[in-house]
Amino acid sequence: MSEPQRTVLICQSSSCLAHRGADVLAAFQGAELPAGVEVVPCDCLGQCNLAPNARVVPDEIWYCRLTPEDVPEIIQKHLEGGEPVTAKLHPRIHSHRLGFER
Ligand code: FES
Questions:
Q1: Among candidates 39, 40, 38, 48, which has minimal Cα distance to 17?
Q2: Ligand 1 atom closest to residue 14's alpha carbon, by position in its atom list
Q3: 10: which strand partners?
């Protein structure tokens, strides 16, 4: 079996768990993922005010305010298609990508 090429880290710490972070993780774990993608629960990502959060590495794409309903689109557009889901990008981390860089 080959090494995963991409990892989706999903915060399972307090603020994210308080905002359905466990459901987001379960949605990823229950979905059919593209080859080379793994999903891993993780500790606090330091972005608690926008919980629940996920970080995709090595892409360094950060998603925030996730719901389980967001998961199919992230899988299809980003993990399969290579295009991050703009509506769920972390607004500060991806301010340049979102076009509101100061
Ligand atoms: S608790 Fe999830 S980012 Fe801090």
A1: 48
A2: 1
A3: 41, 54
Q: By CB neighbour count within 10 A (0-12 exposed, 13-18 middle, 19+ buried), where does 81 fall?
A: exposed
Who's near 72: CB < 8 A, 6+ residues apart?
31
Tell me how far the alpha carbon of residue 76 lies from the centroid of ligand 1, in angstroms.
25
Write down the pTM of the prediction: 0.93
96 pLDDT band, cuts 50/70/90, is confident
Determine the distance separating the centroid of ligand 1 and the alpha carbon of 1, expressed in angstroms.
Answer: 32
Q: What would the pLDDT profile of 9-67 be if each residue is shown by its tens digit? A: 999 999 999 999 999 999 999 999 999 999 999 999 999 999 999 999 999 999 999 99
Ligand 1 mean position, distance from CA 24 (Å): 13
Phi, psi of 75 (to 5 degrees): -65, -50
Q: Which domains does the chain have, with CATH numbers?
A: 6-98 (3.40.30.10)
